Amino acid sequence: MSSGTAQWALSYQLAPIVFCGGIAKDIFGGTMVITQITESSSFPSGLLSSGGPVNLADYFANFIPLPGATLGENVIGEYPFANQAVAGNAVIANPLVVSCLMICPVRDAGGYAASTAIMTALVSVMNRHDSIGGTYSYVTPKFIYTDLVRIRMVDVSSSESKQAQNAYQIDFRKPLLTLHDAQAAQNTLMSKLSNGTQIVGQPSYSGAPASVGQPSSLTGGSIPSGRSTAGTNTAPSPPPMPYLGGGNSLGLA
Hints:
Layout: H1 3-14, E1 17-20, E2 31-33, H2 35-38, E3 62-65, E4 74-76, H3 84-89, E5 91-93, E6 96-103, H4 112-131, E7 135-139, E8 144-155, E9 167-174, H5 179-196
Antiparallel strand pairs: 1-2, 1-7, 3-6, 4-5, 6-9, 7-8, 8-9
């Protein structure tokens, strides 16, 4: 096998899945290829050490991109449009989806124990990576998918082989993950709305705003400043006693 063919196989067939962030956040560059898990026995000094199987046929799994991956998919709003110009702007981008087939048969009878250990470790690492917000990159011969999240991993073993559990399908999706992507989408939408509803000049208001700390003119009278309110009667004064005759109004002689 030539060096170019070996490099192609390593990049697109043997190690096309890259862990980004998550469990790889403390590794230099924040990335880790899947072979650092599936071929961990070839890294005796740790995942950062050099190493790897000499024979490419000895790798645990081969990965093949499945048909149906999307490079771009848009839908339009299913509601009445004012005109064709507005309808042309009502485009909604769907998340990209891509799937790969992981073919991992056991090559000899003595490899079942090792295969079980590798698969258990891979599932555990991917579940952990997903739970702490890690993403994936998937390198295909025609396109590199980034910022992917794993949707599922399912057994799709072929009946053509008598060996059970020899192939798995991994589905990825690329939603709006980062704040930059979300802001870009929002800015595009706001730009479209602004272009359709422009305001000429500065907007005017019907009246001046009320000053902070000043009573509104619509609230009626207020207590004058500097006048104490302590002891103020809250009930009307009683009427005077009626005159009963005699020397004074209290009826005293």
